[in-house]
Amino acid sequence: MLMSLLVPTIALSDSSVAVMSVDLGSEWMKVAIVKPGVPMEIALNKESRRKTPIAVCLKENERLFGDSALGSVKNPKFVYRHLQSLLGKKHDNPQVAVYQKRFPEHHLVTDESRGTVLFSNSEEMQYSPEELLGMVLNYSRGLAQDFAEQPIKDAVITVPVFFNQAERRAVLQAAQMAGVKVLQLINDNTAVALNYGVFRRKDINSTAQNIMFYDMGSGSTTATIVTYQTVKTEESGSQPQLQIRGVGFDRSLGGFEMELRLQDHLAKLFNEQKKTKKDVRENHRAMAKLLKEAQRLKTVLSANAEFMAQVEGLLDDMDFKAKVTRVEFETLCADLFERVPGPVQDALSSAEMSLDEIEQVILVGGSTRVPKVQEVLLKAVGKEELGKNLNADEAAAMGAVYQAAALSKAFKVQPFLVREATVFPIQVEFTSEMEEDGSRILKHNKHILFQRMAPYPQSKVFTFNHTDDFAFNINYGDLSFLGQEDLSVFGSLNLTTVQLSGVGSSFQKHTDAEYKGINASFNMNESGVLLLDRDEKVHPESVKAQEEAAPQEEKQEPGEEQQQQEVAPTHEKTEGGKLFDRLIDRGLSPGYLQIHCNNVCFLPVRLQDLTDRDLKKQEREKTLNSLEAFLFDTQDKMYQEEYQAVVLEEEKENILAKLSQVSTWMDEDGYSASTKELREKLQSLRNLCKAMFFRVEERRKWPGHLATLESKLNRSSFFLSSKLVPEDDRIFTDVELKTLEKVINETSTWKNNTVAEQEKSSPTERPVLLSKDIESKWALLDREVNYLLNKPKAAKPKAAKPKAAKPKAAKPNNNSTTESKELPIKEPTGQNTDSLSQSQPTDKTTRTGTSVIGTVSAIETTFLRV
Ligand SMILES: *[C@@H]1O[C@H](CO)[C@@H](O)[C@H](O)[C@H]1NC(C)=O
Ligand SMILES: *[C@@H]1O[C@H](CO)[C@@H](O)[C@H](O)[C@H]1NC(C)=O
Ligand SMILES: *[C@@H]1O[C@H](CO)[C@@H](O)[C@H](O)[C@H]1NC(C)=O
Ligand SMILES: *[C@@H]1O[C@H](CO)[C@@H](O)[C@H](O)[C@H]1NC(C)=O
Ligand SMILES: *[C@@H]1O[C@H](CO)[C@@H](O)[C@H](O)[C@H]1NC(C)=O
Ligand SMILES: *[C@@H]1O[C@H](CO)[C@@H](O)[C@H](O)[C@H]1NC(C)=O
Ligand SMILES: *[C@@H]1O[C@H](CO)[C@@H](O)[C@H](O)[C@H]1NC(C)=O
Ligand SMILES: *[C@@H]1O[C@H](CO)[C@@H](O)[C@H](O)[C@H]1NC(C)=O
Ligand SMILES: *[C@@H]1O[C@H](CO)[C@@H](O)[C@H](O)[C@H]1NC(C)=O
Ligand SMILES: *[C@@H]1O[C@H](CO)[C@@H](O)[C@H](O)[C@H]1NC(C)=O
Ligand SMILES: *[C@@H]1O[C@H](CO)[C@@H](O)[C@H](O)[C@H]1NC(C)=O
């Protein structure tokens, strides 16, 4: 199916045609690629996982990413994560304070030049969130390249739909620092909707269908209403289209907040246990461990009613153990669950729709796995059930990579039209002089350029009739739909002030020419980034957009537009052009100034220094990863039924203790340990768990192995019985047949006894029934049967080549005991028994015979190959 969606065409000039997507969440990222021959795939990370924590650990000369970075709990202050909430934020933004409270180990200072924040560990070690995100993006490209086995430059990156101009620009800047070419920033909800649509192309017709996606991730929650339908286009006829109709969001509702509640709860429990005089909350490292445990707790409580949280040596070598129930968890988060319906309501009101118009509500995002979230949501939407037919974790990455393939010229992709919607309205504001009652007064004007839910990309041209130098502001429009808290997080409502000079002098010089006004074209591009543009031919939407906007502008500000005065002959126009060029240069974002070049250029140099060391470190990192993966996997296994069934409490405790011990060691000393030490730790753990793993593996193999043995026994017995004909009419001696019979008997006895014995013994002991013994038993059976099968080749020249032997048994023959001396061997043509019985329809007995013949020939083929 995928192949029909994406048909890679011939590569263009260079070979680097693979493209990637990065689904950037607040906590995790998922990377997907498309390359010729590989439709759409999630790129596995170095630990072979499908998602990677967004985390960088920068310590002196070390640089770690993803799981490895998070592994260094010993030094949380060198581990940078949850960067999303800091992007494009001024230092006084409440979200910065929240971050500081959550991660007290970090020292955040103001970047004087931009007013934004910097992580400051020392004079030399100051990093902006954009810079850190740049490193993460560069790392994600590394993962994609390793997976694609070719260089990759182009990417589609997801952003939360509620990202404003400053936040979007911050991501673009990070990508620029990483040298990643951004084909588009796609809203994550749109990426999900696209993924949903492309796989249901055939269900989309001219009747509009409204679907709501409810996405609760780690950091935020979004509800999106999407309309799917086919539309007629001039170029290529009828095509499927998705249109974002309504969006509601809660910037801070997500799984991470739940984990923080649990972390706090665990801290409280530990303090109450009074194992030490210290307050665990004051120890960053211990709190980092509790957060890790809280994460596990949240996951486990989604499936279990209660769970024993435990951390070895949490503080002052004191272990921590406490039971937490799901009910307690739900109480801790009660106010969060109350916020679940909020985004649904907001999405409906922005779309001006009612719930009846929504056909289905589909769950997206890892945190929708929390049972209470589903319960509350289901009630809020009043549907019979919630749609769970989408890959909650990967839909955004897959939708984004589809878009990447569509935008890249190297792939031919079936078109799927996407109509994005502006979440935050944008308007232009300025003062103009007016004649009123004979006196000149100043009037403040507002014109909406992009209203809420206006589709984009699109351009809007606005014509000023000013005849003197003037300034205009570009601001966000009415954001009253945001709550007070969101408004304060949003930051300044002013986007930029544009000062035009040279207008007055130009007007004075050309009083005789016809004045057509000054056109400014505002373009909301594919990435949802607003640009000031002087090219009016930018987008076909532009004309339409103007028509749409016209009545409104007329209503709000009659007659402001065109003034019939001649000012600018042709050469002045170019000057006007230059004027706007300069404006474009300045960027449209004093609300968030660009990081100046010093900083940008500085970055790669500094990172380059590390590259040689990186190479040397690779071996160590690999070992570290294996050890971490082993710890992680085994800890996980200890809670799986299959493993619990084969260990005694004592052994389990012992393994858990050792795992935890090594875990702690990793957090503390593992960070600086040598490759050798890491290897030794890993080996000792492997030895410790070997017996348990062996038991589980054996048990896994039993059903298959026993079935194989049983069927080989059946076959051999059948073969034997079919050969028991009068002695002078057969080629096998009594001794030969007795030998086979004996082997069959012995095997059957062994099997019965061993299985019985195994049933009596404890699953926590080394198994009596061993897969390798079963294998050797069946090998013995095979050997005997094959010996007999090959005998006639030596005895009778005609049958020497079994391949040439006629499939005599295939003759309609009721009685398999009436065979001649020629063996009933079918030519190993690969024909299956079905086709045989088809070509020679016979009664039941014959079919049984045929089937045996078929199987016997299979045994023979194996033998001949040996
Ligand atoms: C980006 O990552 C690659 C490895 O994938 C590394 O060689 C390169 O130095 C990194 N660049 C920067 C600027 O960090
Ligand atoms: C569109 O498809 C839906 C089912 O997916 C069907 O109920 C409806 O009748 C179809 N409408 C048209 C116009 O084909
Ligand atoms: C923000 O915009 C408003 C309205 O245009 C304007 O009055 C105000 O001066 C602007 N503030 C700044 C700091 O630019
Ligand atoms: C400004 O735009 C309008 C409409 O798009 C156009 O008619 C007019 O000629 C333009 N004026 C200038 C000075 O380019
Ligand atoms: C949109 O504008 C930004 C800012 O100038 C730019 O980086 C980006 O390439 C533009 N186009 C798209 C498709 O994102
Ligand atoms: C611009 O247009 C408005 C509305 O028609 C008018 O009142 C004003 O005088 C015009 N300004 C100039 C400088 O022509
Ligand atoms: C072997 O044959 C017995 C009866 O003849 C049957 O119950 C059993 O399922 C067969 N086992 C296999 C593995 O074919
Ligand atoms: C095999 O077992 C059957 C019945 O269990 C018995 O009659 C026969 O003698 C045995 N054959 C040999 C060779 O042990
Ligand atoms: C082994 O057990 C099966 C099924 O219980 C039985 O049919 C068979 O005769 C037994 N074999 C021996 C050798 O006891
Ligand atoms: C097979 O058996 C059926 C009935 O048992 C009989 O009618 C038929 O003739 C037999 N065929 C052969 C080839 O022996
Ligand atoms: C099939 O074999 C049995 C036993 O050897 C014999 O009694 C019978 O006559 C045979 N039937 C046919 C159709 O050859």
Automatic annotation (TrEMBL):
It comes from the Eukaryota. One of its GO terms (molecular function) is ATP-dependent protein folding chaperone. Residues 829-854 have a biased composition (Polar residues). Residues 540-558 have a biased composition (Basic and acidic residues). GO terms for cellular component: endoplasmic reticulum chaperone complex; endoplasmic reticulum lumen. Residues 540-576, 792-854 are annotated as: Disordered. Its main location: endoplasmic reticulum. Residues 1-18 form the signal peptide. PROSITE patterns: HSP70_2, HSP70_3. It is found in: Endoplasmic reticulum lumen. InterPro entries: ATPase_NBD (IPR043129), Heat_shock_70_CS (IPR018181), HSP70_C_sf (IPR029048), HSP70_peptide-bd_sf (IPR029047), Hsp_70_fam (IPR013126). GO terms for biological process: endoplasmic reticulum unfolded protein response; negative regulation of hypoxia-induced intrinsic apoptotic signaling pathway. Residues 793-809 have a biased composition (Basic residues). Keywords: ATP-binding, Chaperone, Endoplasmic reticulum, Nucleotide-binding, Signal. Gene3D superfamilies: 1.20.1270.10, 3.30.30.30, 3.30.420.40, Actin, Chain A, domain 4, Substrate Binding Domain Of DNAk, Chain A, domain 1. Pfam families: HSP70 (PF00012). Belongs to the heat shock protein 70 family. This is Hypoxia up-regulated protein 1. It comes from Oncorhynchus kisutch (Coho salmon).
